[in-house]
Amino acid sequence: MQESVNEQRPGKIFADVKEVEITRAIAKEFYDVLQDRAECDVIIIGAGPAGLTAARELSLMGYKILVIEQNNYLGGGYWLGGYMMNPVTVRAPAQKIWDELGIPYKKVGDGLYLTPGPHAVSKLIAAACDAGVKLNLTKFDDLVLKHGRVAGIVVNWMPVSALPRNITCVDPIALEAKMIIDASGHDSVAVKRLVDRNMVEWKGMNPMWVENGEEHVVEKTGEVFPGLVIAGMSVTETHGLARMGPTFGSMLYSGKKAAEITDEKIKEYDRKIPKKSD
User: Fold this and answer.
1) Which of 195, 199, 204, 247 measures 20 to 30 Å from 145, CA to CA?
2) 3-state secondary structure of 24
3) Highest CATH level, class, for 19-77+118-271
4) Tens digits of per-residue pLDDT, 218-264?
5) CA distance linking residue 248 with residue 258, whole number of Å
6) What is the pTM of this model?
7) Within 13 A of 88's CA, how many CA atoms are on the CB side?
């Protein structure tokens, strides 16, 4: 017969909570967030440095934000840096964003700054959550397209995609938003759905050239189709830009620019929507 460890000791450490209470609490919070963010201002695909930066910026502006991520971790390549060595770098002036987030770093060269990747990611995740961003670990499947404009996304459980179609066919669900940001990295998942339908051109990434790649990824961050903004490595892949390797300043700056452009586009969108009469 199983005997409680706590019953063997005079004083308990933890409160008495039934297993089912834990289950109910988790399920309720998950579905409360899903209900609340099923329709929001902005949905961001990808919780890497560009996506999380954009999410934080927009949430601080007062928008309701949902970030979806297909992996069971957040941060993308920002965790690991290059060659499985987890220090990450930025070039000036991107260290100022680290200053905003309270990330400690050191100067390792003229205009070059370094910090442990896990520290940088943890601070960015916390800052996004503190700003009010909500996250859902789910997989992008398709876009919602209405009247020639992206109006949302279609999502499904990540494990479903790993199962053969002859074993299961699980219908996805739709989430709607005024704007979508594709920050899904090299996969460029939302852009590629439009490419498949001959609605957007996609070029694929060019060989490495740090200076050229970082400058142009920020310059080219923007709306590629009504309702869809691209950020981070999705920009590189879509426009055929040079890759920049394990330096992340342009990812952070691209996220900030994506937020600014999305803010402008939402204001344009709201001006076009007829106001309800009192």
Assistant:
1) 204
2) helix
3) alpha beta
4) 999 999 999 999 999 999 999 999 999 999 999 999 999 999 999 99
5) 15
6) 0.94
7) 29
